[in-house]
Amino acid sequence: MSTRELLLTAPLAGPLLALTDVPDPVFSEGLMGPGIAIDPLEGQLFAPCAGEVIQIARSAHAITLRHDDGYEVFMHVGLDTVQLKGQGFQLDVHEGDRVSAGQLLLRFDLDTVAQAARSLISMMTVTNAEGLSMKMLTTRQARVGEPLLILQGQTRLATDPDSSLSEPHAEGSAMVAHSGGLHARPAALLREAVQPFSATTHILHNHLRADAASLVSLLKLGVKEQQRVMIECRGQQAVQALAAAIQALEHPAARVRAAASLALVPASLSTPPKHGEGVIQGICASPGLAMGPLWKPEALTLPAERHSRQGAAAEQAELDKALQATGVLIQQRIDEAQRRGQDAEAAIFTAHLALLDDPELLQDSQQYLNDGLTAAHAWHAALERQCQILAGLDNLLLRERISDLRDVQRQVLRILLNVQLTFDPPRGALVAADDLSPSELTNLLDAQPAGLCLAGGGATSHVSILARAAGLPCVVALGESLMHLEVNVPLVLDASAGRLETAPDSARLTAVELELRTQAKQRERLRQAAQDAAITRDGQTIEVAANVSHLAEARRAQAEGADGIGLLRTELLFMDRTQAPTQQEQRSTYQAMLEAFPDRPVIIRTLDIGGDKPVDYLSLTPEPNPALGLRGIRLGWTHPQLLDDQLKALLQVQPVQRCRVLLPMISEVGELLQVRQRIRDLAAELNVPPALEVGVMIEVPSAALLAEQLAAHADFFSIGTNDLTQYTLAMDRCHSDLAAHIDALHPSVLRLIAQACAGARRHGKWVGVCGDLASDSLATPVLIGLGISELSVGAARIGEIKARVRQLEAAQCRQASAALLDLPNAQAVRARCEALWPVL
Ligand code: PEP
Ligand code: MG
User: From the CB of 475, is ligand 1 less than 6 Å away?
Assistant: First the structure.
């Protein structure tokens, strides 16, 4: 270690900039260490001190010198210059050379670099110092060779690779996905990612071994893009460090989000299985981590005898009897689901009931009976035929309805064949099935399985919706190999990452068990603390309400400590049915919501359904661009009765003052005034007071831009950051290839949020956020800073967000948030937020 002073002379000529002004968070947030930036006027880089050249980037744009006192001085010419692959750069030294202060290190062609790189701004930092103080000797223009700054601190020593061999360790590998390989920026991100954990991390490549704490040793590995490296972690948190390292190396865009969520979503990250072997990859339908013995339901087999001995009429009578008995069972399930307040589940079973009467299915089965098949074979064949037709359609949602057909197929067959249900797995099992029907899943839930793995299925299928609502980790589309796995063997389901680990060793099982226990304890701690209000350190109360879709979710949110309902998405009430819910049905559902939250406000959004969500009875014409079509409040133009019924139901709940109506997709004030007038008219018709508060969703950019006008007539705003981001960035929120780029912390979205808050403030109205950004704890200080006073989040996040609010000081959030609007992109915003308000 050294604590001696280091004098650095100017390595380049040009105006000086603080590192915080460099438009690259890796430098501006200090990940590369303290230092200075220069906007070069000449294409020559000189040594700022005497020392040894210990590293030169493959593409010659960066050089590191080690001073005799151990300080490692890193110089990087331009931004994103790694992409130039050496073009325009000419080296005057080699690795291992000793150089004196002021010696020429590198020449670069200013024009070539300026045209091809993002910027010419060049940085000089000290990468291995701790507690460093820095004194500038000049503040304006750097002149080559003139004293520039004095540094004083301690150099960080690289760890001895063998000193911790007896500690817990974890090993894995990762493919470096960063464009240009493991150059300065990814190396800094890797170092940052593993730093919080109590573990040492080494990267191994081509017989070289680098300590992840040392940027220079990482750079010296010379790892190229798409090359695989080995990772070794030692220490108490070796598993977490390994997961963070893999994440940092393999997911360049996900960097900040991964770091932010590491503490609370360890499900996918505590996993170090080697890629390929011992892992079946599927699609996450409901996130979470689970482990348990694999269990498969008994398969239903048809009798070998296909042809009837007793004739078509007798077979028809048997089939009718079985259909009737199935109808009775399904009706019981509907009643039961309604009693439990599970409207979504009840709606699914209602659709099943309708299938039993479906004329096409009945006609088909009759035809097969006439051809001489038994009732069981005829019913099976008729349903198979429909499944084949749906499977051939180019519509994912319709294809997923196959599982409903199969469900009804199996239910009737069980009665025909007199086969008892075998959905009785041991508690805590991982259930594997080809595909599961919603009713089978409902049966299954009673047995309290740990998780669900399906060979088929899709993430938007009913089973997935139900699994998510029940908080059951579930992965779909795992493929045929799932059904060949041995039963009763303990496996790990990392549903968040969409994978099933089929060969976990005992160390892995122990790690998962510990992880699950930690998660459960943490959830419980947060849940208890969440029963109290969320108040910032300087006394501002932030309402943390819940986003819900049905009554059971509302009850769960209440138990989790929600301060009310911030968004009831009423869509689920209208889907998977043969007709819209009646006014009376809606009224009792909304009333039940109010009763689930005594004394708290309940915000109910009017129907936000679009051309992409099939609601058969509405006969919506398919639209070429559903996101920009007849959705949200616009549906009220074409289906006024739907909106009227919903408003009437809302006007009649008691006490109506606790019920607030929220209007989706408003884009100008005329739409709001129209709905307000309609509420007055309907109230007069019903002879009730028009006492409903009316809020506007700010999710279309025009609404944010016209916020001041809207605020004059609205009671409150709720910002829908999901759509606001989609429309501002012109990026489809469901597009998997854009998922890494569509980020609501984009400065353009923040500007619109700030504008909405300013507009509301002018009329004394409050603003909440109900989009997913409200559930992102990195964003909490920003939203508070911009003027938000309510956050509506998923039930599972209430404790976490309340805890986050309590760490913050609202005045400081306000003061620091304004500057975020000037940052160039979402990544920079996230980096700045992490530096200002780290998620603990
Ligand atoms: C939003 O757009 O942010 C929002 C809350 O609405 P939804 O996600 O239901 O479109
Ligand atoms: Mg929306």
Answer: no
Q: Determine whether the shortest distance from the Cβ of 569 to ligand 1 is under 6 A.
A: yes
Q: Which amino acid does the sequence have at 603?
A: I
Ligand lying closest to the C-alpha of residue 665: 2
Ligand 2 mean position to 473 CA, how many Å?
Answer: 26
Q: Which of 829, 764, 757, 822 is nearest to 786 (CA)?
A: 757
Tell the residue nearest (CA) to atom 6 of ligand 1: 720
Alpha helices for 53-205 (secondary structure H): 110-116, 184-194
pLDDT exceeds 70 at position 243: yes
- Average pLDDT, integer, range 391-416: 76
Q: Is the CB of 771 under 6 A from ligand 1?
A: yes
Class of the 2-155 domain?
A: mainly beta
Q: From residue 770, how far is each of 86, 249, 447, 751, 776 by CA, in Å?
A: 48, 32, 34, 17, 11
Q: What pLDDT score was predicted for residue 576?
A: 62
What does CATH list as the number for 532-617+625-836? 3.20.20.60
97: which DSSP letter? -
The residues spanned by each domain of the chain are: 2-155, 169-252, 275-298+423-524, 312-417, 532-617+625-836
Q: Is 631 in the pocket of ligand 1 (CB under 6 A)?
A: no
Q: Nearest ligand to the C-alpha of residue 720? A: 1
Residue for token pair 């280091």: 6
Q: Residue 166 — pLDDT band, cuts 50, 70, 90?
A: low
Assess whether the region 2-155 and the region 169-252 belong to the same CATH fold.
Answer: no
Which numeric CATH code is attached to 275-298+423-524?
3.50.30.10
Q: What is the CATH topology of the domain spanning 169-252?
A: Histidine-containing Protein; Chain: A; (3.30.1340)
- Cα of 66 from ligand 1 centre, angstroms: 53
The residue-averaged pLDDT of 589-613 equals 89
* Residue whose CA lies nearest to ligand 1 atom number 1: 720
Task: Say how far apart CA 186 and CA 183 lie, in whole Å.
Answer: 6
Average pLDDT over residues 608-613: 66
Q: Which residues contact residue 169 at a Cβ distance below 8 angstroms, ignoring those fewer than 6 apart?
A: 232, 233, 234, 235, 238
Q: Which residues contact 402 (CB under 8 A, 6 or more apart)?
A: 387, 390, 391, 435
Class of CATH domain 312-417: mainly alpha
Question: pTM for this one?
Answer: 0.54
Ligand closest to the CA atom of residue 605: 1
Q: Atom 4 of ligand 1 has which residue's CA nearest to it?
A: 720
Max mean pLDDT among 352-366, 492-506, 674-688 falls in 674-688
Ligand 1 lined by 720 (C-beta under 6 Å) = yes
Which pair of structure tokens corresponds to residue 138? 């000049």
Ligand 1 test: best mutation among 572, 575, 634, 697, most atoms within 8 Å of CB? 697
pLDDT at 267 over 70: no
Q: How far is the CA of 342 from the centre of ligand 2 (A)?
A: 23
Instruction: Give dist(CA 180, CA 59) in Å, integer.
Output: 9
Question: What residues have their beta carbon closer than 5 A to ion ligand 2?
Answer: 699, 720, 723
Interstrand relation of 602-605 and 565-569 (parallel, antiparallel or unpaired): parallel
Q: Reply yes or no on whether the pLDDT at 535 is more than 90.
A: yes
In short, whether 723's Cβ falls inside 6 Å of ligand 1 is: yes
For the cut 70, the answer to whether the pLDDT of residue 616 exceeds it is no
